[in-house]
From TrEMBL:
InterPro entries: AB_hydrolase_1, AB_hydrolase_fold, AB_hydrolase_sf. Residues 45-149 form the AB hydrolase-1 domain. Belongs to the AB hydrolase superfamily. GO terms for cellular component: membrane. The keyword Hydrolase applies. GO terms for molecular function: hydrolase activity. It holds the Pfam family Abhydrolase_1. This is Putative serine hydrolase. Keywords: Hydrolase. Transmembrane segments: none annotated.
Length: 315
């Protein structure tokens, strides 16, 4: 694992017997996409995708509970974790460029049919990819999400100007204005930001890939967030319910949708269920509700590991 040798915060914990994980980098035109490849490398993996502003560490508690024969490639999306940020001048469209990234990775490895597992944003990307390339996906597992965030068009239109200005503001943020914190203060900030969805100990798990020591030339002590600040602007990626349902109608692969209770506080839960119901019209959908926070795979992996294992073994 890529880690800082001068502190103990990024040390890889001891893994259960037989569990293997390897750090990889996948070349892309703007740099690289980082990943953690769990299990055997001689078989095509399940591709696992984290949520918005998280990283591949979101799967660190779940994957070791699966059979050691399970191969899983956990990605850091661009601008997240250990992956390269987009160059200055490029925008993050979250859901839309995530589909292009997955296609790029599939072509890099020359895979044909794939299976995807995603939490939140990652689940939305799995849904979008399955709808965009319906003949190239065997199955998707979506955790506490059904589709990209659905908003009424008026709200999306209203937020556009603010979003563009905010992106340009973050783009010109000088390096010496990036805030730095000591380790415990950094964890405090992350705990508060997740509003109970992620425990303090699991915030530390995420921050192994989500924070770094402040560069020496800045002459500041402490840590800074590694994620690209431009990722804070996600409004440009939303879609209407009609668009989400049109994508749902194109999905042909098997779908496992796990909704956590209380999970995410959805603005419109009926939109979530409308997408699930639309999927049921055209494909085999397993919808299961479990106890847990929105980050159930990180906070309570024991609540979903058997469901996921059974789904993977069924096919």
């Amino acid at each position: 694992m890529s880690q800082d040798k001068s502190n103990g915060h990024n040390i890889e914990p001891e893994l259960p017997a037989g569990v293997q994980v390897e750090e990889i980098e996948i070349p892309v035109p703007w740099g690289h996409v980082a990943g953690r490849w769990w299990g055997p490398r001689n078989k095509q993996p399940l591709i696992a995708i984290h949520g918005w502003q998280d990283n591949a560490g979101t799967w660190d508690n779940l994957i070791p509970l699966l059979p050691t024969s399970t191969s899983v490639l956990c990605l850091d999306l661009p601008g997240h974790g250990l992956s390269s940020h987009y160059p200055t001048g490029m925008l993050y469209y979250i859901f839309w460029d995530g589909v292009a990234l997955l296609r790029r990775i599939v072509k890099h490895f020359k895979w044909s049919k794939i299976s995807l597992m995603g939490h939140s944003l990652g689940g939305a990307l799995s849904f979008m990819y399955a709808a965009s390339f319906p003949d190239d996906v065997d199955s998707i597992i979506c955790i506490d999400i059904a589709s990209p965030a659905v908003r009424v068009p008026e709200n999306m239109v209203k937020a556009t100007g603010w979003s563009v200005d905010k992106i340009l503001e973050y783009e010109t943020l000088s390096e010496n204005k990036i805030p730095c914190y000591d380790y415990e203060e950094m964890i405090d900030i992350v705990v508060d930001a997740y509003k109970g969805s992620v425990s303090r100990e699991n915030c530390k798990v995420l921050m192994k890939r989500g924070m770094a020591l402040t560069p020496a030339h800045l002459k500041k002590n402490g840590y800074h967030f590694k994620r690209d600040p431009r990722l804070k602007v996600s409004v440009l990626a939303m879609m209407s319910l009609e668009t989400a349902l049109a994508y749902a109608a194109k999905v042909k692969c098997r779908v496992l949708n796990i909704r956590a209770i209380p999970g995410q506080n959805w603005e419109r839960l009926d939109y979530y269920m409308a997408v699930v119901d639309k999927l049921k019209e055209t494909t085999d959908v397993t919808y299961i509700e479990v106890e847990g926070t929105h980050h159930v795979q990180l906070n309570s992996p024991e609540n979903i590991v058997n469901i996921i294992e059974d789904f993977l073994e069924m096919y």
